[in-house]
Amino acid sequence: MKKILYILLIGLFSSCDSLLDVEPETLVSFDNFYKNEQDLEVTLYQLQSFIHDRIMEQHVQENAGLIMEPSTKRDYIWSPSSIVGSPAVGSIATDWGQTYWVVYMANVLLDNIHKAEVQVTPERIAYYKAQAYFGKAIGYFFLARRWGEVTITRNSSSSEVYGKKPLLEVLDTVIANATRAYNALPVYGSVVDRSGAVIKSKQFGSKGAACALLAHAYAWKGSMIDLMELAGNSRECYDKAIEYSSHLIKGEAGAYSLIRNPEELCQLFSDITKENPESIWEFTLDMQKDYISSVYLVGRPLIGYPVDPGVSESDQKYADSKIAYTTIKQLYDTLDLRKDAYFKDYKKYSLDVIEIKDKWTEGMTDPEAIRDTIAVKVKHYRDSITEITGGYAYPYKWRKAITEVDADFPWISKLIAVKSNYSYWRLADIYLLRAECYAKIGENGLAEADLNEIRGYNNVNAYPGSGGDEKGLKYAIFHERERELLMEGQRFFDIVRNGMEYINTYLPSDFQKLTHQDVKNGAIFFPICTNAFELNNLLRQNIYWAQYMN
Length: 550
What we know:
The protein is mainly alpha-helical.
């Protein structure tokens, strides 16, 4: 009977499109549930399923921040016609219901956990509460960065409607819940299930994951105070971001370490059987599902040959999303090791260096003839490679594919997912986030030390000796995050944290037209999708997007 209840429970949770549009009387009653730890565990796993499947369903901002070549589609990624002009596009891009399911599931666990206190030890009760606090903090963190001002729900059963809360109040909700999680959760490696087995997935809350969330939440809050000119003390926020970053770097929130070789890092990204010691919090690929997907991998559109069996060397240049070798050469210094790690056969296809083969001039003695022959051979080689690539690279940060045979064409295999646990926060990110915050409070020496820590093992000159350093320390740190975290989905938020100049310079064309007042009115956030207003007359659209609504 209980197994049937689990199935019905999960089916109910999975069937509704928008939490805030559900009539209160249709929500399930849990009066006869949550009697033992098994009941708590099934709810925690459902919460984790929602985090896996729903948190990254809207990633237009991340796509806007990706480094890739311009295209018509990309130019209009943030235009009102793309965001609110088409009901289909608008509902996909701006519906917050999927993210609120994460908050709701966390609240369900928190609201009902007391019912299991008779049969479950206080230590395990505290553990499940901490996991729920972490899930709730993650949900509101993504809501705050995507929509800015959002509703804060009281619990999982209240029938009241909610208005929006100010951005800083939402971020304070993130911080309050993440702090509770940080104080109560064990470090990774000591997180165990009800049988005592270690949970290997880094998607579950741990002290380190909560610490990374707090570092990013405080850095975002400080940046929002500065950018939006809100009442608050941004310096205190940057200090707290530095504090939590330092806990991670010093090993006080778990045993994390830098992978000081970009090739080894990519190999770890591509092997789900190995634990990546640099990865702090990640989306875990679920190989047990009937339909395996990696919807959370922001860099997926850039992945083609040789990972996707349906894309050949010469097909890559026709992809909608691609990176040119000229872009890579502008991004990285000549000797930077990441070029060879992040892109398949970079030396061969980039034409940075062409090896002169002895057989080209075998038997020749005339210096002029040798020189002319080499020139002809080099040109032929260059032209043949360029004809294949079109000048576009083959991203290779995530290297293994999950494929299936096409039912109609059984000789064809198609890519259904990238076989990777997506590391959303890793230690190199934390070093560079701390560097960014140090620079913001004027601790330039400490900022340079963190920056150079990452540069050193990537074979990049210490500051100020690398390309772009002439623009100053603030840009150097931002630029290093571009290089280190390429295709990982962080760049949009990095740009916003750095302020208006960066928003107007490093994002697609529609962002470049925004004024400071537009941004203060909510232009960097999604509009609220129209279906959210159907059962909630207290909601108000943000000022910037309201002007484009019918």
